[in-house]
Specification:
Largest sheet: 3 strands, antiparallel
Strand content: 15-25%
Length: 185
């Protein structure tokens, strides 16, 4: 998961996801009505394996492996705060969001010009149509590169072109994203 996807995930949550594997398993058990069989089906393991992960008996407990830890994390993220995620997404698509980033950003300009690409801290208010396009790309499984192109176009329009009042026709360079954060509402 890239920086932009992680930022979108953080923006859609109001509470942090459980950090330990044990807490994540407890959440999955609660979300799936306490059924180790349902948890096993979701994770693609046997019911007995899930029972070994969650048992209270010290000698019988077995920790999940790295691949299972990743599967547990994905299953929790998919089920964490679904109504809040939907509400915050709808709000971003209707009202827009504020995008905070530190990345290499500028025009593809000759070296030494004031607008050549360099690492910048940027905080920019972006409209709802950018949020709709970004979420549509995310839903379609677009990678970090395509999401970067969407944000570059939007940032170029709002940051450099001042909403279309100047610098027409110049190509925006946006790369080396160190972090990406989104503020909704």
């Amino acid at each position: 998961m890239g920086q932009i996807e992680q930022g979108l995930e953080r923006a859609l949550r109001t509470r942090s996801v459980p950090s330990s594997t044990e807490a994540r398993l407890r959440f999955l058990l609660a979300a799936l009505r306490g059924s180790t069989q349902r948890v096993a089906t979701v994770l693609g393991v046997s019911q007995r394996t899930v029972q070994r992960w969650v048992t209270k008996k010290p000698g019988a407990r077995r920790p999940p492996g790295p691949m299972q830890v990743r599967a547990i994390e994905e299953a929790v993220l998919a089920r964490w705060q679904p109504r809040i995620r939907a509400r915050r997404r709808a709000q971003a698509e209707a009202e827009g969001f504020v995008f905070h980033t530190r990345a290499r950003f500028g025009f593809a300009a000759p070296a030494g010009s004031s607008d050549d690409p360099r690492v910048r801290w940027i905080t920019q208010d972006l409209p709802g149509e950018v949020a709709r396009e970004l979420f549509a790309a995310w839903d379609a499984g677009a990678g970090e590169q395509q999401q970067t192109v969407i944000l570059a176009r939007a940032l170029g329009h709002g940051y450099f072109r001042e909403g279309g009042r100047r610098a027409h026709g110049l190509h925006i360079a946006f790369s080396d994203v160190e972090f990406a954060d989104f503020s909704i509402g």
